Input
Amino acid sequence: MYAGIFMLDFLQDLLQMDKREKDCFCHCAEVLQEVYGKGMSMLGTKKQRMVFAILLVFFLFATGFTVISLPDNILDVGVVRPAQGTVTYLDRTLPLGEPMLFVSGRLFLPLQPMVTALGGAVSYAEDALVIKHGSRQVSLSKEKEDALYMPLYFESDTPYIYLYDLTNLFSLAAVFDSDANKLSLYHRQAALPYEADREDVPPKPAYLRLEDITADYGIGNNYTDEGLEKLRVIADYMYERGQSFDIAWIPLYTNPSRQLQNDLTSNFDFYNAGFLYTLDYLVDHNGQIVLHGLTHQENDTVSAVGTEFGKNSPFTLDEVEERMKHAKKTARWLSFDDSIFEFPHYSFTPKQLDIAVRLFGTICMQYPYARKAGRVEHVNSLRSDTTFIPAPLGYMPNQGELPEFREKIKNAVDSELLGMFVHPYIDFANITCATVDGYRTFDYQSGAIIPSVVDEVAKNGYVFSKIK
Ligand SMILES: [Zn+2]
Output
């Protein structure tokens, strides 16, 4: 036993663990000893087995095993509820016959009546559903559904299709009126993927983050149904220009004075379905999810206005860890990536940062211990492998400061990382969505903020890229 304790002390010093981590480490060793006790009995005495268990845990730490595991029993996955509301196509209400469904919060529509109403047909071939529409034919097999963003959902053999997949397959625009529980479908010109010129010199990577996106029921006047549609127009723009972007998403919108906490994993309604539709749309058009805290607030403050972490945070380290895990869990439950994190207002303490480093592969901020600021840093330790991506150019505040911001980009070329962020709603005034003859049309004014930033970056040989 003394050898085990000595070894443990040595490893603790080596890993510079705090008390909580030590406890966890010891617990792992004990659990392993218990679980594999029988098999290990051939190793000899209890003392020898303990040493072996400690060495095994050390090996697991050193090879990337993490002691922070997420319990799987907090949230039920695949919750399905009926969605009471109406769907119109070219302003005519569709008699669907079957109810619409919220499947884990996303809006699913009965496949057969929807496709028929849109002028197509569904037939059943061997193990597959075939959708025909005009000259197009899409085959969806139960096992392999590459053509879809989300698998079909079957409610006692009746297939349901996710709204985003339906709008993709039929080139439709979805317009939400969440107060009326109404979804209107129109024709649209789908965004075309960017085709790079093979002669081009490969561009250098730059990074753009769309900041503070949250399901606030339009309370902040930004993420209304209309605002979310404009966010999708921004995604189209980025996609068509071959640019990627990060989506700094606050997973749990919280507004204490309104007694509101909008949990997307339990509040299934048309607003949240429109919000999830929008996040899916962004992700599928070159966007990458960044978990921007859990609530981005503390005490009585509102999400995106408050902070959450940092030295003035009211939360203990255990609570901080729980909050980060809760954010990850929400993302995973909704089928989003949970590996990238950003501290709200870059506010953190070294111990809070340690927790984030163990939970996330990428953190959007300046690595605080870097020799030189303004660079991407890959930081490896025995237990983690983390990339830090800073945004040295800060944020683009408003239309009036666009010329100065373009100048800032130009001056940073070749000397600094072109990392920046923007609150996307500052561009909403430059975007118009309208319906003309059954078509949803979108106008993104020339000279608008995000297109101008993309122009400046592209002109200097850069492309907004995904974090790798
Ligand atoms: Zn923020």
In short: The CA atoms of residues 244 and 286 lie 5 Å apart. Residues 1-43, 56-76 have pLDDT under 50 and may be disordered. The longest strand covers residues 204-213.
